Amino acid sequence: MRDNIYKLSIVPYYITAYPTTCMIDRDGNVFGYIPGSLTKDIMEDIIRQTLDAAY
Questions:
Q1: 44 and 30 in contact (C-beta within 8 Å)?
Q2: 51 close to 45: Cβ distance less than 8 angstroms
C-alpha cells in the first residue's frame, strides 16, 4: 500500500530525479519544478519568481 501512495504522489509533479524542487503557487497549481540540487541563491530566486507570478 505504501508503494502505491508513493507512486501516486510523484506522478502529478513529474519527479524524475532526487532531489526535485516543486514550486506550487498560492492557488495550489504547479508553477514549475527543478530536478537536482539547488544553491541558496537559486532557491531564493525561484521563490521570488513564483511569488511574482502570482500577482
A1: no
A2: no
Question: Tens digits of per-residue pLDDT, 14-52?
Answer: 667 788 888 888 888 888 888 889 999 999 999 999 888
Give the span between the Cα atoms of 52 and 3, in whole angstroms: 36
**Model confidence pTM above 0.85:** no
Query: How many domains does the structure of the chain reveal?
Result: 1
Range of the domain at 9: 2-53
Cβ pair 10, 22 in contact under 8 A: no
- The residues pairing with 6 across neighbouring beta strands, listed in sequence order, are none
Single-letter amino acid, residue 55: Y
